[in-house]
Amino acid sequence: MANSSTVDMDPDVALRLFEEGATLVLLGVPKGTELGIDCKSWQVGPRFRGVKMIPPGLHFLHYSSVNPPSCGGEVGPKTGLFLSLKPREIVLANWDPKEEDLDFSASKNEEEVSRIRATLQELDPYLGPYPYEVMRKWVSLTDRLSKEVADNLQPLSGRICAYSDVIPEIEFRHTKDRAEQPRNDTACQSMREGLDRLPKMKQREGTELRFSVIPEKTYPPGATPAEITQCSLDLSYALETVLEKNHELQPLNLLGELQFAFVCFLIGNVYEGFEHWKCLLALLCRSEDSMRKRKELYLGLIAVLYHQLGEIPPDFFVDIVSQSNFLTSTLQDFFQYVSGPGVDGTLRKRAEKFKAHLTKKFRWDFDADLDDCAPVVVELPEGVTVD
């Protein structure tokens, strides 16, 4: 690997990882490919054959193909996948030049894996050591994320891509299908007309991230106008619905999903991950009733956010147009609700410390006047009218 920094590792830790660590054998990866594991990446050199001494557990392998300098040297979009590695496990993959992707099918061939294990000592000089200096950070970003949650959220294709793989909704195989589409041989008279002429696209089946679906309607069926207003201010009904449908047996796995979305965005460059992270955070921070009932969930949320917010510049969340900060407004609601009656004392104190930490570190003002008198526009159920 090129440009990898070395750090002094405790000899006992090094010995333990050498004996018990997992190994990724990645054969045929072209020189110049950007490849990384967890929070560290490198540009692959000509001798690279994989990564050794990987601590057992959940990891995120990510890579981008690079055009040779003679063809411009452009870096392709990033591809990643979560891997759960056992002690001394060998995972074998070969680079597929046609797909510009790693093919892990060889890992299912026990004879091939046994052959690699027998020649591991010869391969050792070509294996880069796991970047142990980022281990603490990686664990802090994924301590709530289990293999089961990651497997359930990853696309069925097994790859998390920085771009959406989209195909036309209608394939236009027949002349008749194409004839029914808007013509493109005349100038558009408006932006709307131009957009209407574009083919309708959909994500290729199996490539979608399988995040929990957050309900559009935040109130129960048959709710009265007063209940609709209440459920629009306090999102607890929507949060409990998400937990019941996706994490009923382990509600704290929602924090794992929050971490999964954040890693997809922070390391995998997946914008959809950032959007889902924002939606989950807003849901959690604006669920006043749930804060009274789910102490452990919210104590965990504070710990997760503490580590996540240390990875992003404070001005990242400022909207370019409105100059409003999504994060400060969302957390302002959280700190207001968590200081209310009926909230566990330990949770309230932890939230006060977290608020003080953020105020000191980022100079965010959570005590600005809340616009309590602003009207709340709510959607009424079908057939309900207000006189």
Question: What does this entry show, briefly?
Answer:
The chain is of the alpha+beta class and 387 residues long.
Give a description of the structure:
Residues about 1-5 and about 370-375 have low confidence and may be disordered. The protein has helices at about 10-20, 110-120, 120-125, 135-140, 145-155, 175-180, 190-195, 225-235, 235-245, 255-265, 270-285, 290-295, 295-310, 325-340, 345-360; strands at about 20-25, 35, 40-45, 50-55, 55-65, 80-85, 90-95, 100-105, 125-130, 160, 165-170, 200-205. The N and C termini lie far apart (about 70 Å). With about 375 residues, it is an alpha+beta fold. The strands form 3 sheets. A 5-stranded mixed β-sheet has the order 8-7-1-4-9. Strands 3-2-5-6-10 form a 5-stranded antiparallel β-sheet. A two-stranded antiparallel sheet has the order 11-12. The protein is globular and about 70 Å long. A hairpin with a 2-residue loop joins strand 2 and strand 3. Among the domains are: about 10-135, Substrate Binding Domain Of DNAk, Chain A, domain 1, CATH 2.60.34; about 225-370, Alpha Horseshoe (Serine Threonine Protein Phosphatase 5, Tetratricopeptide repeat), CATH 1.25.40. About 30% of the residues are buried. Helix 10 runs antiparallel to helix 11 (about 270-285) and helix 11 (about 270-285) runs parallel beside helix 14 (about 325-340). It is built from 15 helices and 12 strands. About 40% of the residues lie in helices and about 15% in strands.
